[in-house]
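User: Round two. Same drill as before: sequence, then structure, for each protein.

Assistant: Same drill it is. First protein:
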Amino acid sequence: MRICTELGIVEALSDRGLDTGKAQRLYYHGRSIGVKFIRPPGLFPDKKANPERSQPTEIETKGSIWRRGAASVLEITLLVASALGPWGAGEYLRTHEAGGDRVPLHPVLARAQDAIAPILALPRPCDDRTGRSCVERVPPATNLLWMAAIVAPVTLGAWQLYALGKTGQTLPKRWFRVEVLAVSGRTPGLLRAVVRELVGRWGMGVGLAYCLWRYGGAVPDLTLLGALAAGSLALDSLNACFDRDRRALHDRVAGTLAIDAALESFYTSPLQNCTGTQGDPLDRVKISQAHRSTSMDSKAKISPALVPLEQVPAGIHWMRRPLGWGLALGIGLSTFLVTWMGTQIYVEGQQTLRDRAERERETFLALVEKFAPDERQGAILALGNLDAPDAGIQLLADLLGLENDGDRLEAIQQALVSSGPRALPYLKTANQAVRADLDALRYSADTAQRQMVERRLQATQRAIAKLLKIHSGDLDEIDLNRTHLGRLDTDAAFALVLEKTDLSGIQLRGARLDGASFRGSLFYGAGSDRRFGTFDDRKADLTASTLTDADLRAAFLSQAILENTDLQRANLSSANLSQAKLNRANLSSVRAIDTDFQQATLAEATFTGAHLGEANFAGAQLEGARLTRTEAVGSNWRAASVMRTNWQDADLTTADFTQANLQQANFSSAQLNGADFTGANLQQVNFQRADLSAAVLRGATLDGADFQGVNFTVSSSSEEVDFIKPSSESEGVDLLTGVNFNSVRNLDDRQIEYICARGGIHDLCSPGAESW
């Protein structure tokens, strides 16, 4: 039926067979603006009311808080799961798939990583910051799953926004019978839905959580960020419990309200195409809940009322009128004056800059004219102090490669140092050019010319060293790749000494640094956020550099890049190389006593003849590394991956290999007395002629291991032929208990007898075997 009277709501309820009770018109300044009715007892009774009291209750018009909250939680859960599910599966494949071909990371994913890393303060996806190609290789399935982790939440979110805007319901809201309407009673529309979700809920809620996390000292703890975001979203929704209209904050921002879908259709359907008694269109209604009892019935409560839009107060009608001529003229004159003054200031500023540049050019030309033999040194020193020094620095660097006078070389060097770090790129070019000249004269008979070129090279080296020392800590990403800062092959005396210097972030790829001293220096530091482990960490890159005989004692090289680096005979004692990248590095004969290599990557690295006493390799990756003749007494290899490594003739006395993966390792003739292999993977390991006296093998996997000629106990000096004569009756007790030797190769009878006596497991052990 069509309702066109103020009492239409009462008639609509009557048509449905309901007792409508008493109706009352609502007036505002003597004008009828709507109707309210008093619900009689029994109309939609409250289930929680006392059955003994016949008391009317309110008709609930908005969706209950718990159903609205459950729908919101389910929406957020679906959105987050659509991203984290594929990402987690792809990450698992990336970290656990050992074999199979790997492909470059998809360019879209690489760009996404670069964009997300600064926002969430994550470590850089790629450590190469010099512009060289650096592409992570992942399994093909990881590419597919990670792409789904981007597409799925975007698609799901767009679909939810579209459904919310067009129908007022997403799928979770439909399940929980909750509908979102604009305050006009219509569906929200796409724009209002975007404002409600992206601005009101995610923008304000998650944005507040992110600001607290970012600037509250919680970076880079992502778990805390998630907790803050969840708490912020929960507070946004809980606001409905205290709001008089039961509206959450995001509903207030977007001008929407969430209601019970069934009740909304019951109360709004009779109002379609209805007009009031004054003939005004009643096209916007607000479903509200009364909070006070009326004088007509003190025990009855007011039901939802249908109220048209409030009229604009007469006191602000002037805001709708056009601006006056006087105000418009004032604004125009003010704009003209501001524009004119700004133009004059700009013109005068440009003229001042031109005059200053002209004076500097005149000064520069005057200095160039003074390059007579008697005034050249003074002019050289002045060049390094110009206010616009680029041209002067370039000229000084060129002179450094041409000058033959020793005193003037010193003057040029000092002028370049006075120019500051901006001189380093020019010094790098000069260093490389002079180095090329020196290589060309390697077999020349002109000794004087060769010595002069060596002096020029030393001048560039000293200038670079001074700048690195003076500006320690302020040289992030300074490019000194392929520079020669090491010792010369002749008697020319130069040694790079940068002890206790902050070199974090420096780029020294392919540089010559042999004989340099970096004792106590820093090669890794926090970025601008002053936090380690985030996207802007400053990591030194020494890939393929030469550091032979270098002094790196107590240096902080954590996470530094040293792949393919030559570290022969270097001193790394007490240095920190945790999580450093040393793949294919040459560490032959290095001294690394008490050095920290935790979680470092050392695949195919060479440690031949290295001294590694008390070094910590816990969690390190050393697949295919060569450690022959290594001295590593008391070293720690817990949970390290050392598959296919070569330890021939190494001294690993009391070394700790607990839970290490040693598949196919070669320990032939190695000293392993007192070593701990508890829970280690020793499949296919070669122990031929190794000394395993007092070694702990409990829980180790020995399938396919070769024990030919293995010593289990210390032999007596007077009876060297005795293979397994124990030094005491208690020696070896419990060291082999429960260890299965059935799959071990090349065990002889006496070894089996000893294994059985010490509690080992073998098919040839007799039930009554006793300890010796």
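Second protein:
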Amino acid sequence: MDSEIVGSVTEWETVPVGRGYDGLHDLADAEFSGGVTAGTTWGFMLNGRLVGIPGGSLAAFDGAELTAYEAPSPALPLLYTMQSQDSEKQAEYYTNETAISEADTTLADGNFTGYIELSENVLSGNYYVVYYGGRSMSVAFVGNSRRLLTDEEAFERANDEVGIYNVYAADIDVIDLPERESSPSTADDPTPDSADDQTLNPVGDESMTPADSTEPDDGAATEDSGLGSIDIPQAGGGDTEPAGDEEPEPTTTADSSDDTPATAADTQPDNRGESIDDSAESTEPTDYSGESTELTAPTEETGYDNTAIDTDPATGTADTAATGETAVDTASPADTGSGDPDTANGEPFEEEAEWRNTTTIPSLDPSDDEVADDGTQGGGGQQAVTRSESQLSRQQLRERLDKAETVMEKAEQRHEELAAERDEAREQRDAAQGRIEELEAELAAAQDRIEELEAELAATDTAAESTQAADNATQPPQTTRSMTPADALGGTNLFVRYDSKGAATLADAHDGEATPEDIDGNLRIDTHTTFDTEGVTVDDTPFEAFLADRIEVAFAEWLVTDLLFELRSTGATTALKAVYDAIPQIDRIELQGMIELGTDEDDEPIERTFDVVVRDKRGKPLFIADFDDSKQPVGADLIEGLIRNGNALRERNDSFAAGFGVTSSYFTEDAYEIADDATGGGLFSRSGGKSFVNISRKQGFHLCLVDRIKGGFELQKPEL
């Protein structure tokens, strides 16, 4: 059996039960509805009838220890029996197209046996309507907790849901119980025969009362009455065959006094022995307040006994509104001799068997249903399950009233709680309002104090600013960053610029068209650094003062503004023609400049740094200069470096004109001898220039030695 069904059943409450077949008989006598298990074998019972043993046999219960679980709803054991079968899916409907209530009416009228399952595309839960011979019961499992709903509540919830429901047909066969293994303990216990005569009534035993009689126009009234619940007959009840082709009609006679109008009542069982047809003809309304109804089950000896309606068990009389008493006696066919008992009783059992085994779903189209001659639809006069508010039981109404009272009590309690919270909130609001007023007063006082302090602070700031200004006037500005001389010079370049290109330029001076005064009035040397000079110090000296005191800057100014005019005034423009012609081309003077002098054996570039590199606008080197600003005389080392680097530079750059060795002291004899040897030692070398270092016949550069003794620069070699 399905594990989900087992898990659901084992959550039901257990009831005491004996062992083996005796235990099953005890459950049958108690009209038990639920599940019973013997080890791994399960059986389901409905009102004492064993309706199914899924996947097992009755022999498993023989002498076994049993456990019985009582169902919270009689619909569940019947539903689980059907679900444990290979139930055939007959149809599928969408609730918006065919409502469950519409399908329910059609299935009930068609004596359907099976169940409806509404679970597809439904989020709230699973809903079931279980049918046996057209009678139905409803259950539902709602929410994640699978809360159980039954009867009208389950049906109404299912009918209101939107989704797809399936209709499954099933076969239900009541299983006969074997004889008891031991005799009943008391004489009051019902016998198996008497238990088999009972019917399964999921809603409980109810006394049948005749319908209220009405006074039709023709003076006769006929009504069908049913139990309105699923009734499963005893096993084998539908196997009796009729003895003849015709069904005899029972004869009913009514005896009355001469003063009372005669009343004839015909009472016979319907096709399941569940309803009684009462036909009465009376000129006056009949009072049934004292009547009782008794159902007599068929027996093998007498056949099916007709139901007798006795107004009084002792006298058999009844009061009427007009005459007072009427006795109604109902005779069986055997008593009247109107027909064969077997023939009379065969038809109800035959119809019962046909009804119980119905597995075909009737059409949901009312036009397709056949209507019986007596005005009732199929189902042998069965009463369809009616669901309306008028059928709510007294207990259900009481439960609803209790729930309403509980809700009202909770609402009143909540109202009192909210009222208390409201009063408390009002008190807190009043207290908060008072606190706000206090804080506002404190805030106003604090604001006044703030204004006073701000005034005092402003006066203090003014005095402090005056003091700071006085201190700044007497103290040098504080520096924030220090640099080394090499870093400061390496990031500095000097540019030759003019206030006006239309005024005197070095080119004009080269051509003899400008005087030194003209050049001084228009030419300027601008400083550009690769770093922010504000607050920078070099060796504890502000950068501007440090740069102005450097020999490199002074040499650049002499080279640009003085040397050209000295060459003109001394007539050395021819002897130092390369230098004279290169001065007007000066654009930038790079301090601590670097020049590439070629490559080594591994093709790695050879770079040389000079104290000053003078370049034209295209960045080509025109002059180089190395300095010795110590107080010691300069020897041959400085000169040899200039000669060696000058040769390499001239081979790669035709623009290179001269190399300068500059000292703030003087040159030694060794320095002059090295210079003379490099320049040929004569006044004019093979190239025709003074102090000219030849590289080839027409290539070379001038080697110039300059000293600075007392602030001014003087060219010592070549002598002017």
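DSSP finds 18 helices and 29 strands in the chain.

User: Perfect.
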